[in-house]
Amino acid sequence: MSNGGLLIVISAPSGTGKSTVLKQLKEKYNSVRFSVSATTRKPREGEIEGKSYFFKTEEEFKRLIDDNQLIEWVEYCNNLYGTPRDYVESSLKEGYDIILEVEVEGAANIKKQYPDCVSIFILPPSFGELEARIVGRGTEGRDVIEKRLEKAKKEVTYFYDYDYVVINDDINLSAEKIIKIIEAEKLTVKRNKDILLKLGLVNKE
Ligand code: ADP
Ligand code: 5GP
Fold it and tell me: Would you say 168 and 125 are in contact if contact means Cβ atoms under 8 Å apart?
């Protein structure tokens, strides 16, 4: 992938603030692309078709799976979520960096298919704060909140499979940390194997 773009996979337990942090990152750092997932979840207030998600019926989603149009997909809290293949693959080929926001199973699946990707896990400062954030967001009923908190307890243990960790106690700082991770990754030797040739510092042989 050294000549293509960088694939960045970001996960966080629901309610950690991932969407908020990534919205901030989008404003600060517009050279990176964002994959838009397909989901059967109903839109939350303020979510926009094609920007937040591609909202699908279960039938439409299953057609995407059958037509091999998703890189990966999962069932999460009774809804289906999946990453559309075309935009990710064409972006990487054209040299664009692209961010995927996925839960832990999807991240593991992507790491298998794209071992060169860089993965980042965003953690909440505590479970108490996580609950306060989900409740504060006001988009889910109590039963869904309980389900997501239960899920969060399992999800945090996947943290060890990731390359980087960011604790989201401050939205701005978290966005800046993610930018630093991306910038540093792009400077690693393994992603710049052909730099000596490009700079003319060595001959072709
Ligand atoms: P996620 O995408 O991880 O499910 P959201 O981005 O929807 O989470 O954030 C959940 C709630 O937490 C939102 O109400 C958001 O405003 C709030 N939030 C996000 N980051 C922080 C932070 N660093 N400090 C306090 N509240 C935050
Ligand atoms: P939410 O309903 O809060 O928007 O998302 C629930 C969870 O699904 C989050 O952890 C989010 O990152 C994850 N998610 C969103 N899109 C995808 C996707 O395409 N694939 C996978 N595996 N997870 C996704």
Answer: yes
Q: Among 76, 102, 137, name the best residue to mutate to test ligand 1's pocket (greatest count of ligand atoms within 8 A of Cβ).
A: 137
Whole-model pTM: value is 0.94
Helices (H), the chain: 18-28, 58-66, 85-93, 104-113, 127-137, 142-155, 171-186, 195-198
Å from CA of 81 to ligand 2 middle: 6
User: Crossing angle for the helix pair 18-28 and 171-186, nearest 10 degrees?
Assistant: 60
Structure tokens at 12: 């966080």
Q: How many residues are listed for the chain in this entry? A: 205
Say yes or no to pLDDT of 27 above 70.
yes
Rounded to whole angstroms, the Cα distance separating 3 from 193 reads 9
